[in-house]
């Protein structure tokens, strides 16, 4: 008996990295998996239908059940077809994992309109598009009298939640939007028996992170803290019928799982009536605010040994001066 026996699961971007690990893990736990992936490059260009097919082959070779779908999450009709593939092949859809992403990392002064649009189209609109078609299907099933636990698991990133990174304005904005949409989904879809949660992986060795210093070194044996497999059991917990959680964003780094409390309110100043600019300037001197450079240094200090405002500034200068263009 697996923890996901009989659950039908659609995973977007499941051909590589974290999504592939989730597909293998879920199938091993008894789920029937739709492996979605058009097999594009990191920047979203090209495509390779063999990427999803290879994961399906791996699953079936181990005795599991899976089917490939190579539509893009940016294609409205393609998103509908993914849901149909699950229902037509396996008779239902219980779990949707929105995992697909691309990246085009450039400073704001260099990022083109197209660079911004395509990243947000995959990360944010793609998450909405597939969820929307799943929600329609689930609403119908609920109206027909079915009472079954269903789950959406979105995928966000520290770059968007805790530490938006320089050169990632589109990726960070998309990920922050995914976390916000998780709350909306939990509030709206609960009445159809759908729980909506989000994982935020961190420092997982995939093609997106291989160039970060230290990420490509794999321990010869034993526990690998950078393994892209770390998210799979957390996603499986959120996908399992007995899980009580909804509306949560869980950060995952190796064996650590943390509940996030997004954008909580901090210090406050108050006056009965409207402020003048001078009064507010004076009152704000006593308010504690986060310095984004210090916050990022704190986060990277643990992972990469980068500490202090000056080191972060050097990192940003190197990043932005490396790929700048006029126009
Ligand atoms: N690797 C990390 O450390 C890390 C950190 C934070 C968040 N994440 C998130 O985890 C998720 C997986 O990232 P990864 O590191 O495994 O990346 P990856 O590049 O290894 O895998 C992403 C997959 O998504 C697919 N994809 C791209 N565009 C698509 C589209 N339009 N439709 C369907 N599939 C598409 C790609 O072909 C690729 O196989 C992403 O949502 C990412 O933002 C990863």
UniProtKB/TrEMBL annotation:
<dbReference type="InterPro" id="IPR002347">
    <property type="entry name" value="SDR_fam"/>
</dbReference>
<keyword id="KW-0560">Oxidoreductase</keyword>
<dbReference type="InterPro" id="IPR051687">
    <property type="entry name" value="Peroxisomal_Beta-Oxidation"/>
</dbReference>
<feature type="domain" description="Ketoreductase">
    <location>
        <begin position="7"/>
        <end position="202"/>
    </location>
</feature>
<dbReference type="GO" id="GO:0016491">
    <property type="term" value="F:oxidoreductase activity"/>
</dbReference>
<protein>
    <submittedName>
        <fullName>Short-chain dehydrogenase</fullName>
    </submittedName>
</protein>
<dbReference type="InterPro" id="IPR057326">
    <property type="entry name" value="KR_dom"/>
</dbReference>
<dbReference type="Pfam" id="PF00106">
    <property type="entry name" value="adh_short"/>
</dbReference>
<dbReference type="InterPro" id="IPR036291">
    <property type="entry name" value="NAD(P)-bd_dom_sf"/>
</dbReference>
<comment type="similarity">
    <text>Belongs to the short-chain dehydrogenases/reductases (SDR) family.</text>
</comment>
């Amino acid at each position: 008996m697996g923890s996901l026996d009989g659950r039908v699961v659609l995973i977007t971007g499941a051909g590589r990295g974290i999504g592939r690990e989730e597909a293998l893990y879920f199938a091993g736990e008894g789920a029937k998996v739709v492996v979605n992936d058009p097999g594009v490059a990191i920047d979203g260009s090209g495509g390779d239908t063999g990427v999803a097919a290879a994961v399906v082959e791996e699953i079936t070779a181990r005795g599991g059940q899976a089917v490939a779908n190579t539509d893009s999450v940016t294609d409205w009709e393609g998103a509908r077809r993914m849901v149909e593939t699950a229902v037509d092949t396996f008779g239902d859809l219980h779990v949707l994992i929105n995992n697909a992403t691309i990246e085009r990392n450039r400073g704001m002064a260099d990022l083109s309109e197209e660079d911004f649009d395509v990243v947000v189209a995959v990360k944010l609109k793609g998450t909405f598009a597939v969820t929307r078609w799943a929600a329609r299907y689930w609403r119908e099933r609920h109206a027909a009298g079915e009472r079954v636990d269903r789950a959406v698991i979105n995928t966000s990133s520290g770059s968007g939640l805790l530490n938006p990174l320089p050169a990632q304005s589109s990726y960070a904005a998309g990920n922050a939007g995914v976390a916000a949409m998780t709350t909306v989904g939990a509030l709206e879809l609960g009445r159809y028996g759908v729980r909506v949660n989000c994982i935020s992986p961190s420092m997982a060795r995939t093609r997106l992170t291989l160039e970060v210093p230290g990420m490509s070194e794999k321990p010869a044996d034993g526990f690998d803290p950078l393994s892209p497999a770390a998210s799979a059991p957390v996603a499986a917990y959120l996908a399992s019928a007995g899980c009580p959680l909804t509306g949560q964003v869980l950060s995952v780094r190796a064996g650590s799982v943390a509940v996030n409390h997004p954008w909580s309110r901090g210090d406050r100043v108050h006056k009965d009536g409207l402020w003048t600019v001078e009064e507010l300037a004076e009152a704000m001197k006593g308010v504690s605010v986060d310095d984004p450079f210090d916050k990022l240094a704190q986060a990277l200090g643990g992972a990469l040994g980068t500490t202090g405002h000056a080191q972060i500034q050097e990192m940003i200068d190197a990043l932005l001066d490396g790929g700048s263009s006029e126009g």
